[in-house]
Specification:
The protein is α/β, with parallel strands linked by helices and about 350 residues long. Strands 2-1-4-5-6-7 form a six-stranded antiparallel β-sheet. Helix 5 packs across helix 6 and helix 5 packs across helix 7. It is globular and about 70 Å long. The relative contact order is 0.17.
Length: about 350
């Protein structure tokens, strides 16, 4: 699937926008602050119903408006598909496919897939574990939308369980009834947590050889050794036993202390932790290699490449890494932005310019 045309209404900085995209590489150029990233964010939103910047819905709606609309005309194996997402600042949004409203927004997931690489992706390597967990979970959802429900159900269980633990930590009476309720949430956490952790672990094992290849391509260093491990210390004993072990600490601190919500993806470069020992250039190459590895896996498993969105990545890469990136762009549709022009090797099929919020080209 690819996107032929994108419309935005009251989305971010745009009152209206209408953009036609190439089936190959589309470059969107313009100074900082003109709305280039907003276009990519709209394109990603209509695929994932989420902001890759982590913004809440009300931040996506243009100031002074109560709602926004993102529409994408897609080509699915030669068949036109229109996806429309309505965002509301005051209530639940709505999603339509070919003018038919979806009863569950989750049903959209997988209809259009995207891979996003942005400057903030450096945090994939050097940042907090939460970003790496999200990377793994987003990749799982791209592979199969059922993982979105698993992730959502686990988040709900954790919220309920933490509420009960906080009541106990706050000095409220923790009687037999509360203890029974905690056991109920324990059972749900064990079931869902072990399922998600197993899916993540298997995903990392599948990604690791791809990551080795993509890092060698992006960094231009075939001799570098990249390893990836899913770090879940509790898995050796099982989540049920781990919860029993930390029960007193949880009741005292009022929070769930073990489970997939505290796990991590550990990436080593040449035997050393990349988060602390890799240079910034190596970390950027690793971050992009992670995205490309996931992109390759999703392409292989689903039979169609996701739309690749590159947000101003050339400003963060030296000329050699920029050339390596361009030389190893995967097949399929790519939309990239740049505030500093394009490297000499860039050969986009379509170039758009943004000036004072106006798109032309």
């Amino acid at each position: 699937m690819l996107v032929r045309r994108l419309w935005l209404t009251d989305f971010r900085s745009y009152a209206t926008a209408d953009v036609s995209l190439s089936s190959g590489v589309t470059a969107i150029l313009g100074a900082n602050g003109q709305g280039k990233t907003n276009l990519l964010e709209g394109l990603a939103y209509v695929a994932t119903l989420d902001s890759f910047r982590g913004a809440p819905v009300d931040a996506l709606i243009r100031a002074g408006s109560n709602a926004a609309v993102v529409r994408a005309e897609c080509d699915a194996e030669g068949r036109a598909v229109l996806i429309e997402a309505e965002l509301s600042a005051t209530g639940r949004g709505r999603v339509y496919v070919n003018k038919q409203r979806l009863q569950r927004t989750r049903d959209l997931l997988g209809a259009l897939r995207v891979t996003v690489f942005a400057p903030d992706d450096l945090e994939l390597v050097k940042g907090a574990p939460s970003g790496r967990r999200r990377f793994l979970d987003d990749t799982l959802v791209a592979l199969h939308s059922r993982h979105d429900q698993l992730r959502g159900d686990l988040d709900r269980v954790l919220r309920q369980r933490n509420t009960l633990l906080k009541q106990a930590a706050g000095g409220n009476r923790f009687d037999e009834s509360a203890a029974f309720t905690l056991e109920v949430w324990d059972a749900k956490l064990i079931e869902l947590g072990e399922a998600l952790a197993a899916a993540r672990r298997d995903l990392v094992a599948t990604l690791e050889p791809l990551l080795q290849d993509t890092y060698a391509a992006v960094a231009g260093d075939a001799s570098a050794l990249v390893t990836a491990t899913y770090e879940a210390p509790w898995m050796a004993e099982g989540l049920a036993a781990a919860l029993v072990r930390v029960r007193k600490d949880e009741l005292r601190r009022g929070v769930t202390l073990v489970g997939p919500h505290r796990d991590d993806l550990d990436v080593h470069l040449n035997g050393l932790p990349s988060r602390t020992h890799a240079s910034q250039g190596e970390q950027r190459s690793l971050a992009f290699a992670l995205r490309l590895a996931a992109h390759r896996l999703v392409t292989s498993e689903t039979g169609a490449p996701p739309v690749l969105l590159l947000d101003d990545v050339f400003s963060e890469l030296d000329p050699e890494r920029s050339d390596a990136l361009l030389a190893h762009l995967p097949t399929g549709q790519t939309v990239l932005t740049s505030a500093a022009g394009l490297p000499p090797r860039a050969q986009p099929d379509r170039v758009l310019y943004i000036d004072n919020g106006q798109i032309h080209g």
